[in-house]
Amino acid sequence: MPPRDDATPPSPEEIFERTQQEGRRRLLAHPLSQLSTGFTAGLNIVLAIVALGITHHLVADRFGTSMGELAGALAFGVGLTFVVVGRSELFTENFLGPITARAGSGVDRFAARLGRLWALTLISNLVGGALLVLILTTEGALPEGTPSALVEVAERLERRDPWPDFMNAIAGGALVTLLSWLVLSVGSGFGRFAVAWAVGTLLALGPFNHVVVSVLQLVFGLRYDAAYEMDAVLEVFAIGTAGNLIGGVLLVTLVRAGQARG
After folding, report:
1. What is the pLDDT along the chain (262 residues), one digit of tens a residue?
2. Cα 233–chain centre separation
3. Do 74 and 158 meet the contact criterion of CB atoms below 8 Å apart?
4. What does DSSP assign to residue 247?
5. Closest CA to 40 of 92, 79, 86, 98
């Protein structure tokens, strides 16, 4: 391949090679590293949800609900940059790289390693996030008005019908998996920040069903006595996981691999 000027965007083949390298790194990482990385991502997502709730309340109280939702989504996008810039990993970020690593070499027992990575990341995302939710929902820990804003977001999420929510989860999985591709296509720290912020804002504006984000939003609602029970959280977890897998693997991972390999 001829040398490329630094100002020229990388080709799909070059991005694909980067995703393979990153995927191998994640697959071969020690389980403790995978757990720690996922745990940190869960903490970051809760901070993003809190930023959404605080901003939503402050802006909606003065300018109305629509402006509050927009401002809250922008604040959530900033929170998602913590995940990308801090090198923590969400469940859906482990679709593109690890799966494309299968097309290369150097990864034995691929299926077992992939299953372990997915399981440990998803579990640690939720455990880390739930722990911080428990801490922050102590009475008086968050600014006045934030709990009601978080309950409003959670109840709106819980009221969605299962089939539209499943379609929504497919889009959410595709969106965050696309983030993995976009991050590897930019070379600067600012570029990664901007991409993560844009994807996070769109994810919250939907709001698209990302299993980790949605479940943690519902856990916030439960802690603040929202009008639903634990079975609603389990339903969203099942729908979100299945939809995210379909969207992330079929709509992004296989398509991007075909683009590069073609």
Report:
1. 444 545 577 787 888 888 888 888 888 899 999 999 999 999 999 999 999 999 999 999 899 999 999 999 999 998 889 888 888 888 988 888 888 887 656 667 888 999 999 999 999 999 999 999 999 999 989 999 999 999 999 999 999 999 999 999 999 999 999 988 888 888 677 888 899 999 999 999 988 999 999 999 999 999 999 999 999 999 999 999 999 999 999 998 888 777 766 6
2. 17
3. no
4. I
5. 86
pTM above 0.85, yes or no: yes
Q: Classify each residue of 79-101 as buried b or exposed e, where b means 16 or more C-beta atoms within 10 Å of its C-beta.
A: bbbbbbeeebbbbbbbbbbbbbb
Q: How far apart are CA 154 and CA 127, in angstroms?
A: 18
As given in the structure block, the two tokens for residue 146 are 């934030």
Amino acid at 117: L
- Whether the Cβ atoms of residue 89 and residue 41 lie closer than 8 Å to each other: yes
Cα gap 206→210, rounded to integer Å: 11
Asked if residues 241 and 92 have their Cβ atoms less than 8 Å apart, the reply is: no
Dihedral over alpha carbons 14, 19, 24, 25 (to 10 degrees): 110
d(CA 42, CA 40): 5
Q: How far apart are CA 186 and CA 183, in angstroms?
A: 6
The residue type found at 192 is R
Please give the Cα distance from 160 to 96 (Å, whole number).
Answer: 28
As a whole number of angstroms, the distance between CA 111 and CA 155 comes to 37
From residue 262, give the alpha-carbon distance in Å to each of 26, 52, 147, 255: 25, 41, 50, 10
